[in-house]
Amino acid sequence: MRLRTVFLLAAGLASAALGQTNSTSFNLATQNALRACTLLQNSLGSDIVQFSGAEYLAGAENAWSLFNTENRPPCIVFPRNATHVQVAMAAIFHNKIRYAVQAGGHSAMTGWNTVADGILIFFSHMQNVTYDAVSDTITLQPGIHWGDALQQLSPLGVAPLGGRLGDIGTGLLLGGGLSYLAGEFGFSSNSYVELDVVLVTGQLVTANATNQYADLFRALKGGANRFGIVTRYKVQAVHVGTESDKNFFGGLIMYPNSSSEALINATANYVQTVNDTKASILMAFTNTLNGTEIVGSHILTLFYHGSSLPPSIFGEFLSIPSTFSEIGPVSYIDANSILGSGATRGFGQLFGASAFKGGAVAQYTNAFSAWTQYTQTIKSAVFGTVLAFTPIIDAQTLAGQANGGNLMDPPRGNYAAVQIQSQMTMGVLTLPAFVQTARTKLFSQIPRSPGLPLYINECDAGQDVFATYGRFAELRQTYAKYDPLRFNVRFTQGPIGL
Ligand SMILES: Cc1cc2nc3c(=O)[nH]c(=O)nc-3n(C[C@H](O)[C@H](O)[C@H](O)COP(=O)(O)OP(=O)(O)OC[C@H]3O[C@@H](n4cnc5c(N)ncnc54)[C@H](O)[C@@H]3O)c2cc1C
């Protein structure tokens, strides 16, 4: 059961286009895209612009959510450098072609990293990571996955702020980014030093906190895919130690369903009271289907950047009856591997977000009941569901503000990012209507606490996340400045509301 639960959590030219298995018609948009693809291939070459073949297929089918693997774009661009992205984006812009960008592929929002009748830009050939000791910065190309970045930098004792599972990619930064170091350093994107960004027109700009593109720089900390294509991330290095330095203490505890009430209380208390920057938890309640039976089993990952788990912070969780526990001194890489890599494919995936202040236990209990009922309602269609809480402590918000802030701009005080994950039955490609109805009902039952921003990387595509940002007006203004023709919102899928 442990494996099953962790698994859930982590869990040529015209003929190519005509051969699409799911396309409804060979429409005008596809014809235009094919023309642009042919021109692009002539200028960039057939390694970079592909219409078919093994690499094309691997790119088209790479996405983590099965719902995002069905499209067969007329061509896929595999850039080796920013210039290739510029050339592709300029062609897309001038020819009014639909498009999508894919880095790690882990978006659970259908259509956000894939396209049927347009051009996919896929970063599998841009995976370099380097450390500069003089400036103490790390430079990441957009195609690297966090696990690879950590592995390559580990001998140097440094790491970028990323996520908590190895297979996830750099798209995480554009949505904010929650790591086991967030309490100390803020959202992962608050570690930006400099970004190279290809704007919708194909123009390449370098943005940092003080130059003429400082507004763009801020917007890319939570603005997701709406503000341009990032081709280089330069971020502050964090000195976490090497793989043999066990600078963290913690691990994973699994609990039976009978412990759920105590866990809900402990989670609400943690969110309300803990403000120690070195502490972090991810509390994930999981329901998996065993035949027609729903099995509840709950996972806590808990870490302290130090040599033990302070009882005043973790005591309540440690006293709750558990079924499995693996706790001890660990390296930063160990911590990021504790839930597996998250690479497993083959399931349609959906997310949904809420955000709760600490302390109001009833809000947490209500969410648990609503989620339990939700799983019951949709059990014939799912492998399992998750209700997860990531505390975002006041110190995390302050650390972010000290480093230039972001447009999510949470209010002062602790809160929890709440995530609902729904993993469909393996291989199922269409979302049954009754599941969508149940999801809509669930989201209405677990509204965010007033004033809190939703976390865009874990939202449902229908949620108006930008409107929940503290500096939404500034986000809109910045968008209007960099994309006055609204090309991005008209020609690629992504967050709504700009
Ligand atoms: C198993 C799992 C575990 C997760 N754990 C965490 C976690 O610990 N912390 C956390 O914060 N989040 C976590 N997430 C959520 C994660 O942050 C998002 O799914 C994120 O969008 C993934 O980025 P990606 O590059 O892998 O995905 P992609 O789908 O490739 O990209 C995500 C979005 O960003 C866009 N994009 C990607 N690269 C670029 C670029 N260079 N320029 C412009 N747009 C771009 C894509 O078009 C897409 O819309 C997790 C998700 C999963 C599935």
From TrEMBL:
Domain FAD-binding PCMH-type: 69-240
GO molecular function: FAD binding; oxidoreductase activity
Signal sequence extent: 1-19
InterPro entries from the UniProt entry: FAD-bd_PCMH, FAD-bd_PCMH-like_sf, FAD-bd_PCMH_sub2, FAD-linked_Oxidoreductase, Oxid_FAD_bind_N
Oxidoreductase recorded as keyword: yes
UniProt keyword list: FAD, Flavoprotein, Oxidoreductase, Signal
Keyword field contains Flavoprotein: yes
PANTHER family in the cross-refs: BINDING OXIDOREDUCTASE, PUTATIVE (AFU_ORTHOLOGUE AFUA_1G17690)-RELATED, FAD-BINDING PCMH-TYPE DOMAIN-CONTAINING PROTEIN
Family classification: Belongs to the oxygen-dependent FAD-linked oxidoreductase family.
Protein name: FAD-binding PCMH-type domain-containing protein
Organism name: Hypholoma sublateritium (strain FD-334 SS-4)
